[in-house]
Amino acid sequence: MANENITDYDYRFVDSDTGLQGAISELKLKIAEGNTLLAVDCEGNSLSREGALTIITVATEEKVYIFDVQKLGQATFSSGLGAILEDESRKKLMFDCRQDSDALWHQFKVKLSGVLDVQLLEVIYRRENPSASTTNTANTAQSSSNNKRGGRRNRRSQRTDEIEKIYGFGRCVELYLQDEKLIKIKDKGKRLLEKDKELWTKRPLTDDLIQYCVVDTMAMFRLYNKMKNVNGGEQARLRVASDKYVDLYRGKTERSFDGYEKNAYLPLDIIPDKGTLDFPAANTVCTCCDRWFPHEEFSLTQLRNGEQKCRVCKEIKRLEDVQQNREDQWARDAQAALDYVCIPDGMSEYAWFCGHEPWEI
């Protein structure tokens, strides 16, 4: 299927064995021409090791290939695409590769490699260009916490100002590309998916979702080209961080799927510190996210009680407590309102709430 005014990009929807062979041949020829950069994105219902992976989109800078995994099954990857995705030397742009990697491995035994994650690149870029985001609200969760101790940062556990938000793909398109057409396509697709959670399993795939797939890959090239030269180039550090991101969910024996695992904060010790490609030695587990960190990540009280929470998990717990307090207050207010209801003389509480006395039924 060629371009039919769906987007400005050439694309091919692949849902047959013949089409699959042709698409893989085209991809291999393009890769053989030189150092071709790819962009990859997976879609599905509750995408993860447990949710269905139904679409995988692989793009060069010239053409987009949308593979119908729901129809083609394992053949999608045994055709040669799996080898491309597993090739460490073949650079692949992705945006938050964690769920994609988890699904590819646990459903299809494809071990994703060679990823450059644009979500992580944006964090590196934002650190060096804080004014790049005009709505750079609360990069940190509690930036004032450090000042309460007079600026003391003796332990990692006190450095709460280093907790960083991660941005979604749509927000990055808005902030850095400011392309109204792309934003409109993303917003429309998002609204459709919010209305129908099963949309990625329905066929034929609508033109709106095809546009969504095309934009999700082609816009990655533009975001990457805008940010890739931060600090004169951060390829090595980005590669190390992306390798950790790829395995963050995939490497877990079991997943919790809770707020401690899935949240809007950058996990700690994913991006190496500036000037290094290493991470501090980890010897103590966080009891919430089950990740290992240096001993100093945790307060002495936490260690004493055996209830270690890394700084990200502490923030998640704080937000949960705030929400719970709100809900408790709403319940108290509602009960107080009921307690002060003035029931007319001669009317029972039952009649007041039900509109009739029990014997009047």
Number of strands: 8
Rounded to an integer, what's the Rg over CA atoms?
A: 25 Å
Fraction in helix: 40-55%
Label the structural class: alpha/beta
TL;DR of this structure?
With 361 residues, the protein is an alpha/beta fold. It is built from 12 helices and 8 strands.
Structure, explained:
The protein has 361 residues and is an alpha/beta fold. The protein is built from twelve helices and eight strands. Strands 1-4-3-2-5-6 form a six-stranded mixed β-sheet, with helices on both faces. A two-stranded antiparallel ribbon has the order 7-8. The chain is globular.
Q: What descriptive keywords fit this protein?
A:
about 350 residues; six-stranded mixed sheet; 12 helices; about 10% strand; piRNA_biogenesis_EXD1; 3'-5'_exonuclease_dom; RNaseH-like_sf; 3'-5' exonuclease domain-containing protein
Note the topology.
Elements: E1 10-14, H1 17-33, E2 38-45, E3 52-59, E4 63-68, H2 69-72, H3 75-86, E5 92-94, H4 98-108, E6 115-117, H5 118-128, H6 169-177, H7 180-195, H8 207-227, H9 235-250, E7 284-285, E8 292-293, H10 300-305, H11 311-339, H12 349-354
Protein name: 3'-5' exonuclease domain-containing protein
Domain 3'-5' exonuclease: 11-232
Biased composition (Low complexity): 131-148
